[in-house]
Amino acid sequence: MPFQKREFPNAFANLPKEKALALLETMVRIRAFESRVEELFLNRKIPGFVHLYIGEEAIASGVMAHLNKDDSITSTHRGHGHAIAKGARIDRMMAELYGKKTGYCKGKGGSMHIADFSVGMLGANGVVGGGYNIAVGAGISARIKKTDQVAVCFFGDGASNRGTFHEALNLAAVWKLPVLFVNENNQWASTTPTSFATSAVHIADRAKGYGIEGYTVDGNNVIEVYNAASALIEAARKGKGPAILECLTYRIKGHYVGDPERYRTKEEVQKHFTENDPIIRFSAYLKEKGMLDDAGLEAMKAAAVREVAAGEKFAEDSPYPDKEEALDDLFSFSPKEFPEVVR
Amino acid sequence: MAEITYREALNRAMDEEMARDAKVFILGEEVGEYDGAYKVSKGLLSKYGPGRVKDTPISELGFTGLGVGAALAGLRPIVEWMTHNFALLAIDQVVNNAAKMRQMSGGQLKVPIVFRGPNGPAEYLASQHSQAFASYWAHVPGLKVIAPATPADAYGLLKSAIRDDNPVVVLESEMMYAWKDEVPDEEFLVPIGKARVAKEGKDLTLVTFSKPIKIVIEAAAALVAKGVDAEVIDLRSIRPLDEGAVYDSVRKTGRCIVVDESWPVASVGSHVAWLVSKHCFDTLDAQVELVSGEDVPMPYNHALEIAAQPSVEKILAAARRVLYREDL
Ligand SMILES: Cc1ncc(C[n+]2csc(CCOP(=O)(O)OP(=O)(O)O)c2C)c(N)n1
Asked: What CATH number should be reported for the domain whose range is A11-342?
């Protein structure tokens, strides 16, 4: 199916070599983290529901490259990649997955809720479609505070069928708020193919109904993502209002670690893994352009693996929270610290 | 009599009712092709076809409201919520349409619909996926609410719910789906609104519903070992509530502990505790105790999430208080 195409200015072409390599590095770090998390889950070191971002790294990397620390994002149940690309530390993320006290959420959030507010994450929602309106809220906050901050809402193809999508898009559009809605269309919502449950052929097509711009790009080509996000985020910063950026990708792993994946064939998955891996594609491009060689790529991967290993050790060595801490953090001040306030 | 799981019991109930009445159909996320997120609707798609087993998008408010519309238009929908956590997104159509439509239209119509899915914490899922919402539904006049805790009750109560001409909310649990017990082979119904005495006793009444029945039975066994004979009441239905069964027991024992995994404020447990305090005041020998979930969202860390839930130890501590016995 053809989709809304636009030739975005080639912002990538102006990037110095280090910045271009940094795009790859983010992707490689996410991959290293997720690959180890998968192993740790299978080795029963990490419990719960873990949704991996493997194969979708180009989206977080290409979008987040345009965000400042004080720009905000809303993340999802599949949020590890968003956190890493936005600047969260791998060791504290790993500690959170272990349920340790040193984790970003002190062991209270786990995989689906990892978020580092200090780098501009406004939480990760395990309820699908929970992020849209929060991003719109960040947009209005930038407007009221008269800053040039933008908010980016990441959402899945499945999430695009929630009613919150409509309310948020309409509000952001009528108020022309600086929000970019980044759809990660990985072809699957859990066990349901996008086409089975989604009326629009392309989720970006829905932009028309809100009178805003919407574009579909190859989400496994980080250069395309980078260029589109560059134009749309700049426009939002300048007060031109929201847009939808649909990034076509593919969920390489099961919906969650341990998913028996009876709903699709191994061949389908393998095809994407070998032909469409965003890291292989981008590193091949960089090599072709003479910006990277085999040794450089291997060194980058090895450094990422070392960083993840150090994070794992940090998590292993960290203490668990005390049971009493189950009752903490509910309100902004703890009644334990201010007994007179409660009486 | 065969031993079957809670999951199979629910499946059998839906299968039989779909065979019996062509107006019954199922809808929800992944109920068809995938046999249900927890496999409760297994095999129904191949048996009844996509016309009656309908996979929906992630649109909880949408398909729940659609179910209400289909019920008003003469069908008997079973709406499966992947979990009650996501039912929160659909609550408006349940409260404002399913529960009220008949009364606010002066009794002109009926709303025969079942809303079902797992409720309450499972394990390691953190706060947004580990919520016990019984009181959200129980609060609403116009809804019936059932919480079967055994395979036989799951079967018999779900069949009654499907045949009921009113909206019925069913509280199941991820953790209960694999529970196994004997269920008679011949067809039977369990009436909505009748509690079950899960264990007879004379010294103390333990009242509960749904998954906590497991720890309540364990606590009762631990008490027996210490010479205390507790009676266990499994409410099974929360609305209507079998108040008589609870009062009969408490009037016999003079002591009552209510166990409810929900948050304690304005919960089914606190409501039952209030009813018992009021109606059994003259025969109570001690205050009524409530053992509930702690008043916090569920943490992810396992030790913390265990600490935030009712436990055998917490029930025994309450028993020490109502029996005035430090030695238990
Ligand atoms: C409101 C809601 N309904 C259902 C679920 C269960 N669930 C978790 S992830 C998921 C699929 C989400 O698909 P999509 O938005 O495409 O994101 P993806 O998992 O593909 O990244 C579902 C149905 C949920 N978490 N929240």
From this structure: 3.40.50.970
